[in-house]
Amino acid sequence: MRFLLRVAAMAAFLLPRAALADSSPWADEVRFGVYQHDSGWIGTHKENGTDFALEVLSRPVTALWLIGTPRLVLGGALNTAGKTSQVYVAIDKQLDLFKQVFSREDAVFVEGTIGGVWHNGKLNVSNNPSLDAHWKSHGSRFLFRPGLAVGYRFNERWSLAASLNHISNANLAKPNQGMNDIGLLLGMRF
After folding, report:
1. How confident is the model at residue 145 (pLDDT cuts 50, 70, 90)?
2. Preceding omega of 175 cis (within 30 degrees of 0)
3. Domain 2-15+26-189: CATH class, spelled out
4. Model confidence at 32, in pLDDT bands (50, 70, 90)?
5. Rounded to an integer, what distance in angstroms lies between the CA atom of residue 97 and that of residue 185?
6. Do the beta carbons of residue 174 and residue 93 sit within 8 Å?
7. Nearest CA to 190 among 68, 20, 8, 56?
8. Residue-level pLDDT at 24
């Protein structure tokens, strides 16, 4: 757990502040998430527990204007059953589908993220039947982490989104038992 905290602190320190939209603090939003860990809705379910996630999103990064000035994401997900936990860094882009649905400030949005994750799960348990039944074999300590979300922004400050995140090594290592987490993200902008 201490290692996860050190990695998160180091990543926060290294975020490129100069590339952010203005000179105000780099953080734009904080999110709290609750996820069904290793969901069986999509893919094979092996690992149990609930994931509690915390994310900090930057202001839009103007240096990345060619890809739509996304926001940087620094986050982590802690598994309550002692299974695979994660620390991740990503870029995030959010697009409004419908504005002023119920009020002048609300909106329905979609969001996509792509990034990388470090995890503390198992790399290869395929030769150990007692572990293989309850652990995924990720093949590599560092994995890709794409995600999708559909959400509702209540006003300029609060939002709630249904979110799906996937981690895997994209067949760059063996084995590659990907994992899907499905849940809710509550966001608060500063």
Report:
1. very high
2. yes
3. mainly beta
4. very high
5. 18
6. no
7. 56
8. 54
